[in-house]
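Handout, tutorial session.
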Amino acid sequence: MNKVIKTDICVIGAGSGGLSVAAGAVQMGADVVLVEKAKMGGDCLNTGCVPSKALLAAAHAVQNARTASRFGVTTGQVEVNFAKAMDHVHSVISGIAPHDSVERFEDLGCTVIQAEGRFIAPDTLIAGDTEIRAKRFVIATGSRAAVPPIPGLDSVSYFTNENIFENRVCPEHLIIVGGGPIGLEMAQAHQQLGAKVTVIEMMTILPKDDPDMVEVVRDAIKASDITLYEGAKTKEVKSSGDKVRVIIEHDGIEITLEGSHLLLATGRRPNVENLGLEQAGIAFERTGISVDARLRTSNRKIFAIGDVTGGLQFTHMAGYDAGIVIRNALFKLPAKVNYSAVPWVTYTHPEVAQVGMTEATARARYGDNIRVVKWDYAENDRARAEDDTTGFIKVITSSKGHILGAGIVGRQAGELIGVWSLAISRKMKIGAIAGMITPYPTLGELSKRVAGAWYTPSLFSEKTRKIVRFLLKLG
């Protein structure tokens, strides 16, 4: 006989989105059941954002030591202990884990069930030996690494983001299939930590980002001795003793690459299997659960948020979605999502960050009725002081100055993009950024300078000079 629990909200999945809903709802007075079959904290904490950024931090520290001589600092031979770098990664995970733990959420008042959840009816979920009947359900089961159908893959060992952070030996030669954010971040991290790295990309690297910014990243990747094949088809993989061979086709030529390790970084797949979605009356496809602007599924008492919807697969999006669900489920407000000001960042060096429209998407929508302004890091005094002047900021506006999008490639781009996300979400014009006061010297001046550059053609025009001369004649 199953144990029966009746509750206000049942959240399925304890990743960033599910935890945000559970914590918010229970602290606002709702009765909450949280169901998770694997690790608390989900992909972001255990196999995604947190470990990847921790490994990049270790790698960048190595690179800074190697290049310190440009500041007159002699470091001698730089040695890397790869296992200790991974110790750092897991210490960061361990430090954050208590915030996402079963104990914390039980202390908040949630009932936490560590078992796989499956719908058996539109208002009922089975998790372990417990039957949960809820007024509202929230599906936040996230996504997993997509494994492409490469011939021979079942005969070799390979990494995805889900197990690469368990590796404690620096690869002799890491071959990465996939040139998106995960592939490039892991390529740079492992190269800086001492591995030979090859990246294979079927199309172009970072296809969602502005091509001008991607070119800067591409140059940096190639300059770091990472071998990059773009427009290359991975035809087959084979085991060769303790090595792995990857056969690709590039520019019409078949090339065989031999490496010590293989990483697949070819996108994500929503976790929609084994949830009993049909029994709950929830429409879905392999690409994710269908939701409306209020994040309701076809069963209006069930919401879906984050990666499982097949939309923008960022941790911060799952958190944003959680706020929309809480307003709908708890306060009965018809809150709707607005993804027009969603920022995203790839944490290579240089970083690349984007929010709103790229130049290409803006031109496709508005034609020539846009304006594009750029400002180089080389014109920023803080960047010069830190000898890191690679990159630029680009802003796209309407002809009247309404901000449509912004992109930054360069040092700390991810820290700088936030002001542009705010500006777009609040429908600000470029003048608001041009008029703000920024401390000197900071990289934040890049935003003010690029905004000021928008006014340069009119401010220093012949018409303006005539007006000034006329006014000066008046005394």
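The second record follows below. Compare its token runs with those of the first.
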Amino acid sequence: MGDAVRIQPASKIQPGMSDESPMSTALVTETVASQLTASGRSAVAVIGLNGDDAESCIRKCFKAVRDREYQPGQVRYGDWNVANLTTDRGSAIDAGESVVVTPLAANRFEIHAHGGIAAVQRILKSLTACGVRVVNAENFASLDSPSFIQRENEQVLQRCTTIRNAAIALDQCRTGLPAWLAKIESSQPNVEALASFAETALAFSHVGLKLSQPYRVVLAGPPNVGKSSLINRLVGFGRSITHNEAGTTRDVVDCDTVIAGLALRLSDTAGIRDGGGEIEREGIRRGALAVGQADLVLLVVDPDCLHELPRLRSDVLETAPDCSIIEVLNQADRLEGHQNMRSDLLPEQQTVALPTELLNSEQDGIGTLSTEITNTLRPEDPAAGIAIPVTTRQVQWLRELAGATSMDQAMRCLACLKDGTE
């Protein structure tokens, strides 16, 4: 028999109660499925399947490239072929999705498919035809996730918007802190080993905390250096207003994009200068607030104001002392008019952010800048199987654990980490 799950049986749903209602604690083994990743936002969707009939449903719907027994931890590639299935009304269900199926335990599977809404719905529809009940992700997470931290990790997975982040979040659901905590319960560690583990996990906290939210990248610099044109080139469409008059950008304009699998929120700010009207000064003030919340600042200048770089860098560091900065020389094609400029004083990142089809991302420096942005924000991803914190709450208790001086203190930290207690 497969894993027992706690769920309200379909036959016992009361009038007015839907799959969105809280589950009862009746012990049954109903087979249920749910989309675990964000709907319509991920390149790859993850669908969970759990219950006594899960494996039989997989065998009806999935044709693996290699026909062998299912074992936990496998990665099985094949086709989700449902041509032989029909709905309750007798109509055939459309066939055809290439998927990856991963057995997690007895009668517990994950189905990885194209993230499009139509593709996910076809798979869920075929499972429904097999007698599976579709529930929301929160209810599905409660089936076999006894600990608060496991549900927490699964909620982070549901909010991931890129395949790169979802892959890390999925690994944390399987082998991250919840799995490590389960091992601790059956061992006898000492306080030094626990503190050492906490420090190792915290080394990648900057990655875990950004799995479900975008990095904030703020473009700052003097007026009329092409910040708006540059952000348009990075995003790929004309989101910001561009005009060759100082003070055109009067407020912070946010644009969401994805570069190299990282979700970014690019913020175009008002040009930094003295003077200007009241509205422009307010825009500059709001730009300073955006810099203070940034993960990365692109400090943009042009050949005419290169001499201002030291002062501008000092201003940014005064507002955000720990923020990373990339200096960008925009309108670099105008350097020919500045022959006396020393090449060793020029920023390494040089761009030509013109709204033209004549320049590709290598000729205009946008490709190189994009790589520098992602490498600065995330130099490396954690290796598979490494446990990392994915919420600020987890970071807090790991820091407490890293500083623990007694087993009583360490065990309290572990309990709070696992169960969300204070």
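Points raised in discussion: The two ends are 37 Å apart (CA to CA).
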